[in-house]
Design brief:
By secondary structure, the protein is mainly alpha-helical. The chain is about 80% helix and about 0% strand.
């Protein structure tokens, strides 16, 4: 059951994070608003639409949170492997650093590799 949920979660997060989805949603909402204004949908229709939209957003939020929790667990495991090895510990929690600090760390690593090869 967990394996099936993980596959569904990964697929949903991949789909929801695609760059076409926001554009499609904006187009859908604009079309819905135009049709609603021209046909005067009843109040029940608006309430149902609001409820369904809220449920979908809540479901996607849970899937994204599940995916982020797995990423955090992976980072914790990698940090522990770095600590237990002979590697330098400055890469621990690199995901929390800004881009300039990561680029500086990468450059230092590249320079050290170049020195050892020469």
């Amino acid at each position: 059951m967990r394996w099936c949920f993980r596959q569904i979660s990964d697929l949903a997060v991949l789909w929801a994070g695609h760059r076409v989805v926001p554009v499609t949603l904006v187009a859908f909402v604009a079309t819905w608003a135009a049709v609603g204004l021209s046909f005067s949908f009843p109040r029940q229709w608006l309430l149902l639409t609001n409820m369904v939209g809220t449920a979908i957003i809540f479901f996607i939020l849970l899937l994204v949170q599940h995916s982020q929790n797995r990423d955090m667990a992976l980072h914790a495991k990698l940090d522990e492997l770095i600590r237990s090895s002979k590697a330098r510990n400055h890469w621990i929690a690199a995901e929390k650093k800004d881009a300039d600090a990561i680029e500086e760390m990468r450059q230092q690593h590249h320079d050290q590799i170049s020195k050892t090869m020469n």
